[in-house]
Amino acid sequence: MVTGREQVWGVVVAAGSGSRFGGPKHEVRLDGRALWEWARDALLESGVHRVVVVGRVPGGVEGGPARHVSVARGLAAVGEEATVIAVHDAARPLAPAAMMVRMYETLREGPWDGVIPVVPFPDSIKRVRTDDGRVVATLSRGEVLGAQTPQVFRAPVLRRAHAAPVTAGSVGPAPDDAAMVEAIGGRVVSVAGDRAAMKITYPEDLVVARALLRRRAGRGR
Q1: Residues 6+ apart with CB under 8 A from 81
Q2: Whether the bond into 58 is cis, omega within 30 of 0
């Protein structure tokens, strides 16, 4: 759990349109609860003191036209006493509390401004031209990892990153909060993520999520 003198707040982003899913994902029910509720409760289970939910949900903060705008609006609702802020996607409802605690401990014990969970890709990774689909390079899977959420940051650094101009990279503007912290020179380190923190992107992903819930229930969480 969260220990020490940290005041850890969470921001859950539940404001996306869910275009690939076919509608707002955060409203989808999983075992009787909306995805955003799962994400909020996962943060609370890890020891976060308070959670701000961004989106059209009960008690939520109004979202924006882009993810970084929604996060910024969530940050504005986070108390000034917060020393650490965890930013989480509502579309990742089953992120394990143990993974989050590992991130808090890494942030507390090291000289880092942020900690993110990462997982390896099981497939070969190719760099492909977007205009004609031509493969131009094969990348080492050992150096290319997928970033999950929640991502945990020292509050002053995250606030400063969101106050800076949004930068654009090879995958578009501000793909995640870690990219924004990196853009202002922040030190971000990775820890092992967890497959249970999968992102619900397509309807069939709910089948996997339900299977994970059944396995969790069999283990008594």
Answers
A1: 7
A2: no
pLDDT band for 23, please (50, 70, 90 cuts). low
Angstrom distance (rounded) from CA 183 to CA 39: 27
The 8-class DSSP code of residue 52 comes to: E
Longest CA pairwise span in the chain (Å): 54
**What is the β-pairing status of strands 151-154 and 125-128?**
unpaired
Q: Which tokens is 207 given? A: 């089948």
Encoded tokens for 90: 């509502």
Say whether pTM exceeds 0.85: yes
Q: Which residue has the tokens 């912290």?
A: 181
Nearest alpha carbon to residue 161 among 40, 75, 98, 89: 75
d(CA 63, CA 69): 7
SS3 label, residue 188: strand
Stretch 151-174: mean pLDDT: 81
SS3 category, 64: coil
Enter the tokens of residue 202: 């397509």
- pLDDT in the model for residue 196: 95
110: Cβ contacts below 8 Å, ≥ 6 apart: 189
Tokens standing for 119? 């997982």
d(CA 84, CA 80): 10
Distance of CA 178 to the CA centre of its chain: 10
pLDDT higher at 221 or 103: 103
